[in-house]
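cache lookup: miss for this entity combination. No prior model stored, computing from scratch. Input as submitted by user K.M.:
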Amino acid sequence: MLKVQHFQVFSLFTLYLVSSFVAFLVGLFIDQGQFSTPVGSLLGGVATLLLIYPAYKVTLARPHQFIAQYGHQLVGKVPHLIFMYIIIIVALILATSNLRELADFLILVYLSGTPEWVIVGTFGLCIVYAIRSGIPTIFRAAQGIFIISIGAFLIFPVLVKREVEYNRLPAMFTHLNLHQVLAGAFNMTTLFGAFSFLFLVIPYLQSPEKTYRTLLSTTLTSLIIIMAHLIPILLIFGPDLASNLTYPDLELIRSMRAGSFIETLDPVLMILWLICLYVKISFILYIAVICLTHITGMTDPRPLCLPSTAFCCILSIYFARSQPELNQFMIGGLPPLLFSVEFLIPTVYWISHLVRKDPSYSKGPPN
Amino acid sequence: MSWWRQKLKKSRSDKTKLAKSEQIPSSHPKHVPSLPKDNNLEDRLHWFEEQFTNCSDIIYRRFNLKSGHACALIYLDGMTDQVMISDSILNTLITLAPEEPSKLFQYIFEDQAVNVSQSKMTIDSNQGVSGVLDASVLLLVDGDHRMMLYPAASFDKRSIEEAPNETAIRGPREGFNENLSVNITLLRRRLKSPNFKSEILKFGRVTQTSIALVYIHEICKPELVEEVKRRLSYIDIDGVLTSSFVEETIEESPFSPFPQVQYTERPDAVISSLLEGRIGIIVDGTPSALIAPVTMVMLMQASEDYYQRFIASTWIRWIRYFFLFISLLLPSIYIAVTTFHPEMIPSKLLTTITVSREIVPFPAILEALIMEISFEALREASIRIPKSIGQAVSIIGALIIGTAAVQAGIVSAAMVIIVSLTGIASFIIPNFALGLSFRLLRFPIMICAAIFGLYGIACCLIIFYIHLINLKSFGVPYLSPLVPLNKGALLDTLFRPPWWAIQHRPPYITNNKRRQGNNSRGWASQNEEKK
């Protein structure tokens, strides 16, 4: 079995978290958190590290096995099946919503008039190829584009520094509101909680006992990049305008001029988001596919790749009637679902593991 | 397993069964009926004449020894050294007079009376036939069933010349030629170590082509040598004419457009690869060697990089990588930007492009395809056209037709610049096969760019990228050491480090990682201390 290196985990999750937030969620989060969003985001990021501890501990007990395969020994067959199906459904919904967000973005900004199914279909083909290739390929893909992508994510805020209105800066401290901080923290926790998906494929990780350290560095890096976008957006547009813009980061890029050679860099931003979201959607879909493979007793996940992706692609077209409806789901319905999948279900497994203290548990590979 | 894979597997197994069931007539010795067991010369000569029926180049030379025993020499005309046959073999045998006549046969066959190096005795008729075909002289003596084979190969071969497709400004000029022993000698001359191994294997039922596996024991992984041998062992064909046959047979992903084995005409390139722990495959009759495993980074390196000063070589490497992307993407980006994203182009430049495209009746994609395909045709023609008129045709094709096409309004001047730049960029890639892959892949990206703009380019790049991540050459990931990241080998990727800093071999290729001592510039620190 090809192993996933820690740097690859770091790369994938940094791209995952940064691209999700910067591309589609920043406006929605600012809407709820206003000037308290940065503090809430920082708190949420740190809280996630505590909340994923049960998922980490329970899967580390058997690092050479998938929890989807042995979870029934912990919580019983029926609850395990229910939990797994919830995880699969939520992963599929998450992938679908991201696909829909991406298709909406492309149609709205660059390819107006192009049928949605064409865009979703072509992107779906790329995703099928990645998930058929397996999880090491997805992680390697993330690692290969990491430096360039992160470089681009970091350089954009630097290019807009002339537009920043520094007189708004004190508001970050004077307008702190506990309710808004908590709302921001909760949203960020559900975003960063994607770490717990990693533990579903723990046998692929190289030295899984060091994973927590990797996730710590991922959280710190992601938070720094997120802040590098979030704070300029708040300072340039203010919370009201930013929350009403569909793509605040895109507007941020549009507000700058790179020089006389290239008029605007926003098509480059489109490619950047596209590639990062590609890695993200591929990972989530793979999680759904591998869990489905294990609970159905199949040995090879590849036969499920095309049907699962096709399902997501078709569902994404009918997923929401409009952008506001999708936004409502992303900020209203999805976070509680994610919270339960990312933190509550692993906690149930962990508690069962602690209660049972099964002597058959060992860190060695299965015979 | 998908249905097409199953079908492919079934078709392969059917073909194997068919091949086994068919007895393909060939000159392979294993199909030759056995030699008569008696010691009669005439019977045995008759048997050999039957084997070589209608072979006008086989010479049968009958003669008698001083003792009166009848003998015969069998050899190939044109491939053997006639002077050596008459002076060293015939003359010695005719004048042979052992002190004890009863020990004549022992003298010929065991004491090797004829002083020819590498001569050998055999009783195997198949070996006799193979030996004659390998340009040895076969001696048959009446009254003894044993045979002697005297190597006497001598035929015209091309001299060692400069590698025509891999020229270097600094560094050795020698290139391989078609002769296998000459090619191995070119390597041995520089690798004066018993650890340099060259194993000869024969393939091709009719051609019996010799293939040499060359590697350095203790640097090359034994499992790599075994894997190459294992893959080669599956070759079962009537003829192996060039190394491309071997290449296509042993590579992991035959349907990939990317080369998974490197070929080179330069012995120094092979030696450098062997010192990294790779393995070379040299096919008799081919003036180049194959090297495996290979990564994309290796294909982007030229021998010249290591002969020039490292700072200049690093700069050239960057230029090469930049033009790699130009050769792949420039026409597509032009199509996407002018068709879908004109807002990216500054207004003055946009005006210039628009004005130049105003009289062109075709969309950008059609214009690009016309130009690219014309350029490909010119390039292909320039290889086939005789050298004496090649230059004239190139001038007519590139300059006159290009200028006329722009003036006639068939293509825009901007497109001519784009295509020319792309064409030049594709020649910057040091490995021809890799350059060819990128030339090929340019077309689907252009079509996607015309349909979806930058989104189409991104989708195409994603697919190629995932393909490259999955691609392996003898188990080594094709994008190593970038993906998966291998920090130890990163230094010699985008940079050409100075020789004294290249202390390790690529860790993903060999287990013997240490290449040189800790401080090849130790004298410099000594000088510092003296000061």
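stored under new cache key. Chain A touches chain B at residues 5, 7-8, 106, 110-111, 114, 119, 122-123, 125-126, 129-130, 133, 137, 140-141, 143-145, 260-267, 270-271, 274-275, 278 (CB under 8 Å).
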